[in-house]
Structures are given as structure tokens and as C-alpha cells.
Amino acid sequence: MRKKFGLGGLLALGAAASLALAGCASGGDTGGDGGDAGGTSGGGGTVTLGYVAGWTDGESMTYLLKNQLEKLGYTIDVQELTDNGPLYAALSKGDVDIYSSAWPEVTQAEYMDEFGDDIESLGAYYDNAVLTIAVPSYTDIDSLDELAANADRFGGEIIGIEPGAGLTGVTENAMMPAYGLDGVYTLETSSTSAMLTVLGDAIDKREDVVVTLWRPFWAYSEYDVKDLKDPLGAMGEPEKLHMLGHQGFGDEHPDIAELIAGIKLSDDAYGALESLVTSDEYEGDPEGAVEAWIAEHGDAFPTLLK
Length: 306
Prior knowledge:
Largest sheet: 7 strands, mixed
Number of domains: 2
CATH architecture of the largest domain: 3-Layer(aba) Sandwich
CATH topology of the largest domain: D-Maltodextrin-Binding Protein, domain 2
Structural class: alpha/beta
Radius of gyration: 20 Å
Distance between the termini: 31 Å
Strand content: 15-25%
Number of helices: 10
Order of helices and strands: EHEHEHEEHEHEHEEHHHH
Number of strands: 9
CATH class of the largest domain: Alpha Beta
Shape: globular
């Protein structure tokens, strides 16, 4: 099993405890002179990248961006924060310069409502992020509207992740009522790692299991699963994943803005990146994982610096 798990941006608002960001560079301290995304002129100065600790999409994209901005000549300060509330607050104040894997359109819209006047999108790197309900590929049902009649096959359980996750709330409050699953299924929550353990064990034994998942997520490249169709749209609309900066950052650093605007990842390219960053082989070495990914995916996006 992987050492790291996490739901990139899908956890709902936790306790917004105060968080000291000592050592974070403000947007005014970055001091870059600009340049082009071809890397011929380095920006100089320090850029602070923030992500929520334990969320693998954030970690993967942060270290990819760190790699690229260092090749533009910047010094990078990576900050791990505890939750999205503190991260959006720090971004809006310029204590963090870039949030490299945000879900601002739907899942994190409440934070944009609160802080969005002081935040700008530098670009969307993935355009089809979705919340999903999945089963092993060998399970012979294909749609959420088949779950109610097949509760016995799954022991009346949907295996979920953290109780406070946005995915958990959507599953419990929208999907289950929409498909008549209240009183028929129980949503079992604990952690992402526990859900993946149950999923892996069921697949090893070729048993039926239904779990909550999301795209993009490296589990799709590691487990033989399929998404159940959602004819009622109860799991919500697809959204784009953005790299956000504090207001004015793109004008201050046009070289960075140009590079980020070119980052568009396919499912395969993104899955390979996240899989490497979270692998045992590169545990504790996300920089090495990114370099290995670039060696194999040198044409992943047009502004990629090798």
C-alpha cells in the first residue's frame, strides 16, 4: 500500500485554528523581473507555494511547480498548511504566493466567496475533476440507480473516507437520498487509507465493494475499478483544478504566469505524476519523483521546462 493518501481539496472546512506562517515570503517579497516561459531569463527572488499536508494532488502539483520555477531562476519556499481555510486566508494576504492545486469552482467555492476578491486564477491545469462512486471492474452493475436493488451484494455498506470530507457530505446528503439509498445502505467513514485498504482487499478476493472516489486520483492507475454512472447528477458537476495566486501576482511575474497558463495535464500524465510522488520508491523525495516524471513525460504540456 502507498505510504501517503489524501483527498486533494475535497475535505470540507475543518476547525479554522490560527496558523503561524513564519518564514513565508509575501507577494511583495518575490522581487522577480519577469521573463519568458522558455526559461531564458530567471526571475530571481523567492516564491512561496502552499498546499494542505497529506493531500497528494497538492503535493504533486506543488513539487512540479517548484521544479519548473527553479528552472526559471526562482528560490522556492514550500509551506504545508493544515486546511483550506488557513491556506486561502494566507493566499489572500500574500503570505503564500501560489496555491498550486485548488478546487475553487465547486468544492472550495465557499473559500472563494470569502477570500476571492484578493485571489486570482493563474490557470486551470485539469478540466474534469469529479466526485465519484466506484466498484471493481468485474462487478456487473454500471449505474448508481442499480445500487438499491443490490444492497445485499455489498453488505449494505458504501465505504467512504474522512467524515468531514466534501465527498462524504455529497455522498450522504445528495447521492444517497437521490437514489433511494437511505435506510438501505450505511456510509462507513474513517479515512482515505482505510477505504483503499478495504478496496484492495476486496479486489484481491474478487469480492464486490462500493467506495467513494474522485478524479483525478492515483488510485485509478493502481486499482481495477470503474465509476458508476450518475444519471441524476447527484455527485455534482465536473470542475476545473486551478493554480491560484494572490491578486496581482500574474502581473508581477509574467514569466511564471505564462508557464502556468500552459500547464494542462491529461488523466494519464496527471495519474503518472501523482503515482510517482506517492510511491514507496520516492518516499521523502518528491523532487526526484518529479524529475523521473519529466524524463518520461517531456511533452506533457507545451511550457514544460526540461
